[in-house]
Specification:
single chain; mainly beta; Porin; 8-stranded antiparallel β-sheet; two-stranded antiparallel ribbon; 12 strands
Length: 193
């Protein structure tokens, strides 16, 4: 649990009741079938405790986050994997970067991934993978934020002027990216020492 999390700011004109406790729990499991098929599953729930009249901007509580993966060993050296991740909607959206904000936003998303791995030996593996994030209308999930590749979402402000769908005009706070599909391909060598 994280106590007294401030998601807004220390500015004096903002509601001090927006400081709340945050917690999460998850359950997961994995099973390997005799066919050398591995099935993995994970479910998570997150919660932010704030006053009910501030729930309209609560984008931290999420009752349903799911991850499923299937890996099939093809040969002694080759395997293929498919993954699906789902982030359910939140009760609110503060409207800071991407949307006008408010209660019950359509900010869920799905992540699909496909990967092939080929072992050269016990330490070296070649891989090729593909991932796509399918954001719903108010979602702004990205690819690359986990430390692999360049983050492709542009929800943070930049000095570049761009059309802002939340105001209908041009702003210099950068493009506000929500909705849409982000896709990426990665290939490389993994060396374990």
């Amino acid at each position: 649990m994280h106590k007294n999390v401030n998601r807004t700011s220390d500015l004096p004109n903002l509601d001090p009741r927006d400081v709340g406790d945050e917690s999460a729990y998850k359950v997961g499991g994995q099973y390997v079938f005799p066919t050398k098929t591995t099935l993995s599953a994970l479910w998570e729930r997150t919660k932010r405790k704030i006053p009910s009249d501030l729930e309209f901007q609560n984008e931290r509580t999420r009752n349903n986050a799911t991850w499923l993966a299937l890996t099939q060993v093809l040969t002694e050296k080759d395997s293929v994997s498919f993954g699906w991740g789902h982030a359910g909607s939140t009760p609110g959206d503060p409207g800071q970067h991407n949307t006008t904000g408010g209660p019950n936003p359509d900010n869920s998303a799905n992540l699909y991934s496909l990967a092939w791995r080929h072992a050269i030996d016990k330490a070296i593996t070649l891989y090729v993978d593909y991932a796509m994030t399918a954001n719903h209308r108010d979602a702004h999930y990205d690819l690359g934020a986990g430390g692999h590749g360049v983050t492709t979402d542009c929800h943070d402000s930049t000095p570049m002027a761009a059309f802002d769908a939340t105001t209908g005009g041009v702003t210099n706070t950068g493009p506000h990216c929500f909705d849409g599909k982000l896709q990426g391909v990665s290939a490389g060598v993994n060396y374990k020492f």
